[in-house]
Design a protein that fits this description.
alpha/beta, 41% helix, 240 residues, Arc Repressor Mutant, subunit A, phosphorelay response regulator activity, 4-stranded antiparallel sheet, WalR-like, Rossmann fold, 8 helices
Length: 240
């Protein structure tokens, strides 16, 4: 089985629901409230722009039919001020319109009516991809003491010598980078990287961590990027 990075997506802190139908808006707020601390609402194009300008949410759920303008116009305006994921929610199912909206900057398109489980899965999927992209961009290139790591290009050079990381080692490195400052236990890393229910996870993680450190640490005997927290796990700290 190929290594995978996540088994499920993280929950968003804030979602903006742009919907003028009061009943549907209430249902969406209730549903999204099960995974999100703050669900804000807007019923018009102008309200939505103002909400995003004041404080960008983690995700926007956008209905196309608004009283003061078409949601497609709002999509273009939002893309001018924010790059957060935008999911379009609409009863329109024409292929050409879906393509046009995706080309305009929508990240996903959901046709109404939509079940709660599918909606939450789509939201988590977008949040997961957004979090991955932001974290990888934050640590896209790491340079410290003769070691250069490019996560996007998947390239590591240690003391002038290119290092070849296995797919599992790349997945392990990304799992750590995407949780900067947080100690991940061997069990958590096993779930994130190997995605298996059974196995000798402690041995697998320890052996692969040793191999990874030999390739990415300036001095593997004194780790500086990937720190061992005794009794807890491993923590990525990055260069100081």
């Amino acid at each position: 089985m190929s290594p995978v990075l996540f088994t499920e997506g993280p929950d968003p802190e804030s979602i903006l629901v742009v919907e003028d139908d009061v009943d549907l808006r209430d249902v969406l707020v209730h549903t999204l409230g099960t995974i999100c601390r703050s669900v804000r609402t807007a019923s018009t194009l102008s309200d939505a722009v103002r909400e995003c300008t004041l404080k960008a949410p983690d995700l926007v759920l956008l209905d196309l039919g608004l009283p003061d303008g078409d949601g497609a116009d709002l999509l273009l305006r939002l893309r001018g001020i924010t790059d957060v994921p935008i999911i379009v929610l609409s009863g329109r199912a024409e292929e050409e319109e879906k393509v046009a909206l995706l080309d305009a900057g929508a990240d996903d398109f959901i046709i109404k009516p939509c079940g709660a489980s599918e909606l939450l899965a789509r939201v988590r999927g977008q949040i997961r991809r957004s979090a991955t992209s932001l974290a990888v961009r934050s640590w896209a290139r790491i340079t410290t003491d003769g070691v250069e790591i490019d996560l996007v290009a998947q390239r590591v050079v240690r003391h002038g010598v290119p290092q070849r990381l296995t797919p599992t080692e790349w997945a392990l490195l990304r799992a750590l980078v995407l949780h900067p400052g947080r100690a991940l236990s061997p069990r958590e890393l096993w779930d994130l990287v190997w995605d298996r229910e059974f196995g000798d996870f402690a041995t697998h993680v320890r052996v692969h961590m040793t191999h990874l450190r030999r390739k990415v640490e300036p001095d593997p005997s004194v780790p500086r990027l990937i720190i061992t927290e005794p009794g807890v796990g491993y923590r990525f700290v990055g260069p100081g």
